[in-house]
Amino acid sequence: MTRGFDLRDEPWIPVRLLTGGSVRLGLRELFKQAHEIDDLELPVPPAAAGLMRILAAIAARIAGYGDDRLDNPDIAEDIEEWLHLRQRVLKAGQFRPEDVDAYFDRRVPDGRFDLFDDHRPFLQDPRLRTECVDAKGEPNTSGVNKLVMGRPTGINGAVLFGHFTDTAPVPISAAEAAWHLIAQLYFGPSGQCTPRRVTDDRTGSGDAAPLRKSVSYFPWGPDLFTSLVLAVPSPKAEVDWDADDTCPWEEEHLADPLKPVAPMTWPGRMLTGRFRHAVLLVPSQDGRQVTDAYITWSTHEPAPEVRDPYQILDRRQDGEFQAREADGARALWRDLDSLLLKDSRQDTQRPPALEGLPPSLLPALRVRAYGFDQDGQQKDSVWFRSTTPQVLTWLEDNDAEMAHHVKRCHASAEQVGERLDFAARVAWKAATDSNVDLSPKGKIKLDRRKPGPWASAALTRFWPKAEADFWKLTEPGGRTEQPVKPFVHAALVALDEAIGQANRADIRVARARHRARSMILALLGPKSG
After folding, report:
1. Are the C-beta atoms of residues 32 and 95 closer than 8 Å to each other?
2. Which of 22, 27, 403, 489 has a CA positioned 20 to 30 A from the CA of residue 122?
């Protein structure tokens, strides 16, 4: 018999307390102690992005004042009434322990938070035991390496965070398996997967998970209680208000993989009801580890359309909006104007989670970003977590002048970065191609396939310098009518460092460098010299 692993009470979520200590907690104690917790410490950011959505859905069920809860659809009909309720919840300062116990012990059927429950394991599909089998009816598992993001799978898998092989898979603890289960459901790949036979067809391909290659932004408070309450999405959402709202662990029956996806409802399904993968963990005999896993498709029905509350949307060339993609080389400050400015702009919409924040809390609020730089199918590059300083007082709703100053500073930095990239490529071409006309008016034709090493090296040096200058420009007294100037200086320094002192002794390199510097200085206007 396998022992269960009950996520309500097993210590599986690493957190840092306000006192500075680090502990692991189950869901029950996490909510009861949320006001004493400084931060989540999950070492897998895509798991943290998914977990925050799960916690926000649960917080909506638990957080309340009197008999009213934040997920009450009647209260949600009046946004002002709902915001007033949220303010009363925040003023209380903590989740009521009796409400936490009531949800975990009575509202949700027994076993639904057990990672290894025989009938309804948490966020898993036990039908995969019989539906993922080979031609002989033997289990056809995906392997524990497929479950753990960062481990290589197959012959050509890249080694990101350790050396593992499919021939000698290393089990992981049940707690870590829970992290990667969540990460797979929210960030899993599209394309080939373990075949699943539901009808006579044995299909082995699936769609990308709902957060694939994206970055999420959360308002981050001085304690986890505040962060979770503010993470509960506003009822100003375009969802089906006539259907009952449930999370997967609250559903009476498992979803039928051949039927249309349940309609999106607020707040549970919009946060936890868009999965495209089905997973089943295989535990060790004592239930302390996971030794194998099934990972396959959960549905081929069209993905439901609903606005994710924690994502920036950017307009595509076809006029439609899509979630801003994660970029491991892009620092969070470069997204700051998209977070602060109202989404009335034509090409960018800020996350709904940053709308309607309590003015009294703004001086204490930061923004937490969780991202996973991936392609749409199988390639995983890098994941990241980043947090801004307390910048939400600069929301356009609260301080329009500062919000637009931030936009000007960021736009200046991006303009200089683009010019530096171009100038460095021009300099490399001019320095290494003897056929190039080096006269001031000579035209240089670039080959995008051969950018040379200077552009990448210069940008690598430029962006950290630009970030330091950006924050100086946002300090009291740091505003200027020409925010481009410090970024130009940073670009010139970065260009010189990329070219190198020794190279600059060469006359052709010196002339190429002068031309590149002139291109960058031109951003200051005709008096730049």
Report:
1. yes
2. 22
- How far apart, in Å, are the Cα atoms of 208 and each of 113, 186, 247, 275? 25, 9, 20, 9
Q: In Å, how far from its chain's centre is CA 406?
A: 23
pLDDT, position 350: 95
Looking at residue 433, what is its pLDDT?
83
pLDDT of 66 strictly over 50: yes
Q: Is the pLDDT of residue 161 over 60?
A: no
Determine the 3-state secondary structure of 483 from DSSP: coil
Which pLDDT score is estimated for 205?
93
* Average confidence (pLDDT) over 372-385: 89
Alpha helices, DSSP H, located in 63-162: 73-76, 79-92, 97-102, 128-131, 144-147
209 and 275 Cβ atoms separated by less than 8 Å: yes
Contacts of 139 (CB under 8 A, 6+ apart): 129, 132, 133
Sequence-separated (6 or more) residues with CB below 8 Å from residue 304: 261, 263, 264, 273, 274
Alpha carbons 289 and 115: distance in angstroms, whole number: 11
Please tell me the distance from the alpha carbon of residue 428 to that of residue 425, in angstroms, as a whole number: 5
Q: How far apart are CA 401 and CA 392, in angstroms?
A: 13
- Residue given tokens 């459901």 in the structure block: 185
> What counts of helices (H) and strands (E) characterise the chain?
15, 16
* Span 74-109, pLDDT tens digits: 999 999 999 999 999 999 999 999 999 999 999 999
Cis amide leading into 267 (omega within 30): yes
